[in-house]
Inverse folding.
């Protein structure tokens, strides 16, 4: 029998890391560690959420987040519905809230929501009885991405206190950066955000991070490099002269990586612009933990689905993870 997760989680929703305590964040990481074991078993399924229904309500494209939430729900034996914007009645003008309320009326327990509007998940949370998980809302937050980043850092480096993490790139447009900043600072890490002034506004210093426009100066100091994607779709026009200019100053090439500590870990949330913010030899090299992040996403999302289900108003707590009798798998 494995240890139960910390008793800190009582929320029905996961909307962002800003509102979570360090204890709540650690409770998710601990629960994820328990769930990671399930993926190593011969039968990779437990009945924890049997009879529950999870819907993926994605209004923006996704590969990693959507598939890992689907697989996480299936590993927990939940039924999974996939909502696709293009073939839904939103194209006839149905609102987000009406769409969600109609889906909820079918008996859905957990909504996993990705939307271009900041606050979309919070709006649904106020209008639904079901649990709501934010899978990315505009440039606001992407909490499960930050949680899987934190999980990977703890797995690789064993701590947060005293670590120095650089988040490099399009900070101003990045929900991943915001969620990482909240989580890392709460857990005791030092954070420096790095990029050109047009992508890294000085106001970020008000959050408690350092701001730098000189990657080469920051590289030797850090334990973790989190390289963000240049988000052309959120920028309108490019906020720097050219991709080549960005790469020359902020791209993580093999040559530039030599300035960093040999044991530095290199992260990227994906999808990667190979040759722009990160060179292929670094993305696929020995310091890269990018695919470890993807693997961690499955365990983290199992934990999140489990925890918000235990916090739902309608239902008694679901079964704890770690039950191991052979009859449990299905
Ligand atoms: N990191 C991330 O959110 O990737 P997807 O857009 O593929 O889900």
């Amino acid at each position: 029998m494995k240890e139960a997760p910390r008793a800190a989680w009582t929320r029905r929703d996961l909307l962002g890391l800003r509102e979570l305590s360090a204890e709540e964040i650690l409770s998710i990481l601990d629960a994820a560690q328990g769930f990671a074991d399930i993926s190593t078993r011969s039968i990779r399924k437990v009945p924890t959420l049997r009879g529950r229904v999870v819907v993926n309500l994605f209004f923006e494209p996704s590969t990693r987040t959507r598939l890992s939430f689907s697989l996480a729900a299936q590993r927990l034996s939940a039924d999974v519905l996939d909502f696709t914007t293009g073939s839904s009645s939103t194209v006839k003008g149905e609102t987000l809230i009406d769409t969600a309320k109609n889906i909820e009326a079918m008996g859905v327990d957990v909504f996993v929501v990705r939307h271009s509007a900041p606050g979309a998940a919070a709006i649904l949370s106020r209008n639904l009885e079901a649990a709501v998980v934010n899978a990315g809302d505009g440039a606001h937050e992407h909490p499960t991405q930050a949680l899987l980043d934190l999980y990977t850092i703890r797995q690789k480096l064993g701590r947060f206190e005293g670590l120095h993490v650089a988040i490099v790139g399009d900070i101003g447009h990045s929900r991943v950066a915001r969620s990482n900043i909240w989580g890392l600072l709460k857990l005791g890490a030092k954070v420096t955000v790095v990029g050109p002034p047009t992508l890294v506004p000085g106001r970020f210093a008000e959050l408690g991070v350092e701001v730098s426009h000189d990657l080469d100066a920051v590289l030797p100091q850090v334990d973790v490099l989190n390289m963000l994607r240049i988000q052309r779709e959120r920028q309108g026009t490019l906020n720097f002269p050219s991709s080549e200019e960005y790469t020359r100053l902020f791209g993580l090439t093999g040559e530039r990586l030599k300035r960093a500590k040999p044991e530095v870990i290199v992260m990227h949330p994906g999808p990667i612009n190979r040759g722009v913010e990160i060179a292929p030899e670094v993305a696929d090299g020995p310091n890269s933990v990018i695919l470890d992040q993807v693997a961690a996403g499955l365990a983290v999302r199992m934990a999140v689905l489990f925890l918000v289900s235990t916090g739902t108003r309608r239902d008694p707590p679901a079964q704890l993870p770690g039950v191991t009798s052979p009859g449990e798998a299905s």
